[in-house]
Amino acid sequence: MPEDARHSDRTGEFESRTECLENIRLFVSHEAAAFGFDAEDIGKIVLAVDEACTNIIKHAYRNRPDGRIHVRVSSEENRGRKGFVVTILDTGLPFDAAHYRPPRRLDYIRKPRRGGLGIILMKKLMDEVEYSAAPGAPNEIRLVKYLRTHAQAHRS
Amino acid sequence: MSDFTVGIRHIDTVTVLDLKGQLDAHTAPDLEQVIADNIGKQRYRLVVNFRDLSYISSAGLGVFMQFIEDVRKHGGDIKLTNMSPRVYDIFDLLGFPMLYEIFPEESHAVERFRTTPPPADMTDRTH
Predict the structure, then answer these.
(1) Residue of chain A whose Cα is closest to the Cα of B62
(2) What angle do CA A80, A86, A91 make, to 5 degrees?
(3) What is the mean pLDDT of chain A?
(4) What average pLDDT does the structure give for chain B?
(5) Does residue A86 come out as left (phi exceeding 0), alpha (psi in the -120 to 50 range) or beta?
(6) Smallest CA–CA separation between A123 and chain B, in Å?
(7) Which chain B residues are within 8 Å of A109, Cβ to Cβ?
(8) CB-nearest partner of B25 from A21, A106, A108
(9) Domain encompassing residue A137
(10) Between helices A114-125 and B85-93, what is the axis angle to 10°?
C-alpha cells in the first residue's frame, strides 16, 4: 500500500449490536461525502455497509453483543479511476461465500430468506464486493465504489 | 439510537401504518410487532405510508416479505405508498414492484381496497 494511501485511512470500531448501525452509517456517510460522492452514491455506499454489518451481527456473531466490527475506509487508484474502499473486519463465524447461493429474486415471496437480500443489495450497490477468511485472521469484506467522472454523472 | 415510530390509523376497513425515521435491523422488530398485532386482530388490509421514512435497509423490506403471504391468504394485502425516490429505488432494485402494489399517494391505495371488497367475514372487523 502506498504511504500516502495509508495516511488517508480512517477506521471506526463498533460493537456487534444493531443499535450501532446508525453510528456506522453516520461514519461511512461522512467519509463518503469527504471523498467527493454525491448524495445518491453516498446513500448506496451507506446501505451496502449497513447490509454487511447487519449480516455480521446476525450471522457471524449470531447476535452476541460483545463482538467488534472494524470499518476502515481508504482509497485506491484503478485504471485511472478513484476508488473508495470500505474494509469491514470481524472475528465471528466466517461466511462461506464460495458455497453461498443467493435466492432468486422473485422467490422472495414464496421462500423468504431475509439475510439473502443484503448480499444481493451489496452487489447491486457497489462496484466490487469481496469476502475473505483465513484461519487465525479476521473475516474481511471489501466493498469498493468508484467515483464517477463528470461525464458519467451527466449520463446517469 | 435510531428514531423510528409507527403510527396507526383506520380508514373504513383499511389500517394505515405511518412509518417515521429509519427502518433498519434495529428498528425492524418494532414494525414486525405492529403488523403482527394487526394481523392478530384480523386486520388484513394494510396500507404502509412511507412519507416520513428517511431510510430503509433489507431488514425493513424483510418485514413485508414475512407477512405478505399471510395477509393475502386472508383476502387482504399490504400496499405501499408515498415513498421518496431513494426509498423506492431500494424496493425497485430487489424487484418488489412486481410483488407489491406501490402507489404515489395513500388515498389511491385506500381506494384500491374500496374497489376490491373484503371477504364477507372481514367487514365487521374494522377496529
Answers:
(1) A114
(2) 145
(3) 86
(4) 91
(5) beta
(6) 11
(7) 65, 68-69, 99
(8) A21
(9) 3-155
(10) 110
